[in-house]
Amino acid sequence: MSYYLIAPQITVAGFAVAVIMLDLFVKQKRLLPIVSVVGLLGGLGASIALWGQTETGFTNVLSVDRLAIFFSVIFCGAAALVVLASRDYVRNNFSRFEGEYYALIMLSVVGMMFLAAARDLIAIYVSLELVGISLYILAAFGRDGKSSEAGLKYLLLGGVASAVLIYGMAVVFGITGQTSLAGIYQAVAAAGLGLDNGMLLLGVVFIIAGFGFKIASIPFQMWVPDVYEGAPTTVTAFLSVASKAAGFVVLIRIFLEAFGQDLAIVSGWAMIFAVLAVLSMTIGNVAAIVQTNIKRMLGYSSIAQAGYLMVGLAAVSKTIGAGVTDPEVLFGPTGLLFYIGCYGFANLGVFIAVIAISNKIKSDSIADYAGIGHRAPVIALAMSICLVSLIGLPPAAGFLAKFYLFNTAVHHGLTWLVVIAVLNTAISAYYYFRVVKVAWFGTSTSQEAVPSGWGLRFALGISVAGVLVLFFYPSGVLDIARSAAEAVSGIALSAP
Question: Is the peptide bond before 333 cis (omega within 30 degrees of 0)?
């Protein structure tokens, strides 16, 4: 058996068990976040060591390729930053359950890494449930009314989404007789099926609906604002980046490997994603404008960001169908992967700043952030830079991420979608800059400094550095994203 292919998962799972054992037998709880970070960095290192491998093992259920490795690095890196930022928060809010908290984060990362490598519908579903169960528990970890409500809503709606997803998978299996993505591709191609086949269309729609819940897309987003507000802020930070990335890697894997046969079928599902992108961007941004709670605002912002990300999925149809090789065209999934990396740094940076500020002022109300720039100038500056990146303005990575993504869509004949995305970007500037304005120009009733531990400061520094470095030196990450996209496209991509 090729166990070295799952070395990252084994490493992180082993350290998760070690954290639980240490929590039982060691009194020095300060070791728990350290061991967790070491385990996550070990998983990250093991993933990088596999770069360049393209091998399928375990009876073709799991595959190690550059796409899986790219996302494994994102999962481990995001979790490590969240654990570093969580150290003081966890100790102050649920110190009795530190071990369980860190172990659940690590186990969810294990599920996400399996999800990125899965090449079979059954493996995808089992991995998704490992991720989901861990996150349902983490959402309720605050053990107060709001947190319990968040965990319950997330569990119930997640269960419905899972049922919808498994039904869609069952329909696809019924049509093709296959559960492997390669087998589905061959069966659909051999039968000449397209989305004009009612049953195949039904299966595709149900699969999109199931994963639409995971990526927080309209109209499957109803859980987002309540869960984001009620869950512990550290959990919300992890959920907003890692869970969304996990949903998108599976969508890329399924729709490019199983349903990427020809222009007709690809154009069909790409148009579904284009429509969902418009709805998610517009409704998410408009709803965010009226929010007074920063976590709810970031929840609706996450819905809008899912819309921007789906532009990358919508912009693949002509590339696959017509074999576009123009060097000026950035292949849709490449821009999508780059956007996910930029979004991860920016969103984590904002949430890490929120962790520090809200922990001091004991409020998530945007109005209570008044004058925080004078009380904690470094944290407020970092938060402002990350908010600018989420808008998509220079000198932050979000500007290049949107430029590449929108440029791809224009070259693929989706100018109308880009126009709507640009208008939504202008809308988002209002509520993002409102937070910046309140933080720097509002009048605070207190002049007390906002304390923060070394772990939180380090995690915030890494996030801001990522936002700035990816703006000034994007070429390295773009090359890596292009290599990862090639793993599922089979198309040689040239530099933009």
Answer: no
Residue 322 has pLDDT above 60, yes or no: no
Residues 6+ apart with CB under 8 A from 199: 171, 174, 175
| Structural domain spans, the chain | 262-496
Structure confidence at residue 317 as a pLDDT band (50, 70, 90)? low
* pLDDT tens readout for residues 466-488: 999 999 999 888 888 888 887 77
64: three-class secondary structure by DSSP: strand
Which of 139, 169, 170, 143 has the alpha carbon at shortest distance from 156? 139
Residue owning tokens 């079928």: 265
Q: What is the pTM of this model?
A: 0.91
DSSP characters over 223-292: THHHHHHHS-HHHHHHIIIIIHHHHHHHHHHHHHHTS-SSHHHHHHHHHHHHHHHHHHHHHHHHHHHT--
Question: Could you identify the residue written with the tokens 């491998």?
Answer: 53
- What band does 185 get if pLDDT is binned at 50, 70 and 90? confident
Helices vs. strands in the chain: H and E counts, helices first: 21, 2
Separation between Cα atoms, residue 285 and residue 304, nearest integer Å: 6
Category of 104 on φ-ψ map: left (φ > 0), alpha (ψ -120 to 50) or beta: alpha
Torsion angle (degrees, nearest 10) of CA 451, 456, 461, 464: -100
184-198 average pLDDT score: 84
pLDDT of residue 235: 92
pLDDT in tens, 123-173: 999 999 999 999 999 998 877 778 888 888 899 988 889 999 999 999 999
Contact 40, 79 (CB under 8 A): yes
End-to-end CA distance of the chain: 40
Residue type, 24: L
DSSP type of residue 220: S
Contact 375, 444 (CB under 8 A): yes
Asked if residue 47 has pLDDT above 50, the reply is yes
Q: Which residues of 123-155 are buried (b: 16+ CB within 10 A; e: fewer)?
A: bbbebbebbbbbbbbbbbbbeeeebebbbbbbb
Q: Tell the residue number behind the tokens 């089979």, with chain if given.
A: 490
Bridge partner residues of 64 (DSSP) = 55
- How many whole angstroms separate alpha carbon 197 and alpha carbon 176? 12
Q: Strand runs (DSSP E) across 115-162, as ranges?
A: none
**Residue 443 burial class via C-beta count within 10 angstroms: exposed 0-12, middle 13-18, buried 19 and up:** exposed
